[in-house]
Specification:
This protein has one domain: EvaA sugar 2,3-dehydratase subunit (Nucleoside Triphosphate Pyrophosphohydrolase, Alpha-Beta Complex), CATH 3.90.79.40. The protein is built from ten helices and 24 strands. Strands 6, 7, 8, 9, 10, 11 and 12 form a seven-stranded mixed sheet that branches. β14 and β15 form a beta hairpin. InterPro entries: EvaA-like (IPR005212), EvaA-like_sf (IPR038153).
């Protein structure tokens, strides 16, 4: 076999040192710039430094938005950003196999990026105090860059997105993670964002709304309610944590084979339909709501935000009805922690299913279905005592599209009687390391599963 030399040295396929650098940052609970105990004060300073205001308004007061005459879809006059359309979903199994709903159609791919840099030999992550109109407390810790294509191409004619160049110019940094990940399949149609972690190679200019934190510090903040936003959690889940165990109940090949079979056996149809006249949904001047008061409402808000690229705007938001419950059941199998993942069908997924938590429901949305329609393992999670709960915090979902969308995220210990090693169809025991491997690829682990993966990694740190 002949060898062709082009003067370029081959590179290792994997950076074998990176997982240990990630682990070192996760173990560091003291940062070079900001102490964890001072974080709440810093965030409050950033809150007081800018004027934030969100007011509900009727649809007719939306600036730049309109209902299309032919379909009733809610869209922006620029043709950009996103639109609210109707969706008709049919599935082959489950307590509910046919339904209609509003859905957010946002076909453009945004960037969710965290910039990292070493200080004193420890990786620090550049996090932003960012206001989102749907956040319950408005200001939360977001990635360095959190922007849709419409935002960073300045369709809104606003200011530049800070630090964007580190994620669009390959010469500015070294990519540690880069993957297209899905977002909420129940509320978005085929939505994807580019999740990136980039290591800066030069000095990084400082800005008062940003701070450097270690993974250990962020892990501590993940134990607090509504501090670390959804976009940060999904990017953090992409960090290549080391596999400290090396074993699993199912090999990676067996897991992928099972997952492929799950995708193949589900027959899911999701067809866009006009928003006007959507069965079981009604529209008045202030909301689009389900006739039974379940699921979510589509509402309109006017926003003032002094720290954003545009200081004022109006937009629709989805507002869920009730607090969600999102949980992994966990067991140690031969000394190795595993979690019970669920191959979930959601109408907005690009593929039929993605791996999600054991439980991912808003209990009130299922009360009318009776005992037969009760989701598996939901009562086990709801009834778990403090001695069984290994992690618990309330986290908000994406505040740029959802209003007061909160879920109680838990990791709950179970036993063989409650959660057997041979679980019901559609469920599989996996290790956190296996989830970390899958998250390197798009459309394998859903956004709620990625949040819980970030929380599992946070359990390595002290609170």
């Amino acid at each position: 076999m002949s060898t062709l030399t082009l003067g370029m040295a081959l590179k290792p396929r994997e950076d074998l040192a990176l997982p240990s650098r990630i682990a070192r940052s996760a173990a560091a609970t003291t940062g070079a710039q900001l102490r964890t105990e001072d974080f709440a004060g810093w965030l409050e300073q950033r809150r007081l430094a800018h004027h934030f205001e969100v007011d509900r308004i009727p649809f007719e007061e939306l600036d730049g938005w309109y209902f299309r005459q032919d379909t009733g879809d809610l869209a922006h006059r620029s043709g950009r950003f996103f639109s609210v359309q109707g969706l008709h979903v049919t599935t082959g199994e489950g307590a509910v196999r046919d339904w209609h709903q509003p859905i957010i159609n946002q076909p453009e791919v945004g960037i969710l990026g965290i910039l990292v840099k070493e200080f004193d030999g420890v990786l620090h992550f550049l996090m932003q105090a960012k206001m989102e109109p749907g956040n319950p407390n408005l200001l939360q810790l977001s990635p360095t860059v959190q922007a849709t294509r419409s935002n960073y191409t300045k369709v809104h004619k606003g200011a530049d997105v800070k630090y964007l160049e580190y994620f669009t110019d390959p010469r500015r940094g070294r990519v540690l993670a880069d993957v297209l990940q899905s977002e909420h399949g129940s509320w978005f149609l085929h939505k994807r964002n580019r999740n990136m972690i980039v290591e800066a190679v030069d000095e990084v200019p400082e800005h008062e709304d940003f701070c450097w934190l270690t993974l250990g510090q962020i892990g501590a903040l993940l134990h607090r309610d509504n501090v670390v936003n959804m976009d940060s959690r999904t990017v953090l889940a992409c960090a290549p944590f080391p596999d400290e165990t090396g074993g699993a109940l199912h090999s990676d090949t067996d897991l992928l084979s099972w997952f492929t079979a799950e995708r193949s056996r589900h027959d899911v149809s999701a067809v866009r339909v006009p928003l006007a006249g959507l069965p079981d949904w009604r529209r008045d001047d202030k909301a689009i709501s389900h006739v039974e008061g379940r699921y979510f409402d589509v509402v309109a808000v006017r926003v003032q935000a002094g720290s954003r690229e545009v200081s004022g705007w109006s937009q629709p938001l989805f507002e869920p009805v009730g607090l969600g419950v999102t949980a992994f059941l966990t067991r140690e199998i031969d000394g190795v922690p595993h979690v019970l993942a669920h191959a979930r069908v959601e109408g907005g997924f690009l593929d039929t299913v993605e791996l999600g938590p054991t439980v991912q429901y808003t209990p009130g949305n299922h009360a009318h279905l009776g005992e037969a329609g009760r989701p598996p393992f939901l009562d086990l999670v709801l009834g778990a005592g403090p001695d069984r709960i290994r992690y618990e915090a309330v986290h908000a979902e994406e505040g740029g599209r959802f209003l007061n969308a909160e879920s109680r995220y838990l990791i709950v210990e179970a036993d063989e009687d409650e959660a057997p090693l041979d679980p019901p169809p559609g469920y599989r025991w996996v290790t956190p390391a296996q989830l970390t491997t899958l998250v390197r690829h798009g459309r394998y682990v859903n956004v709620q599963g990625r949040t819980l993966l970030a929380c599992l990694n946070a359990m390595r740190t002290d609170t």
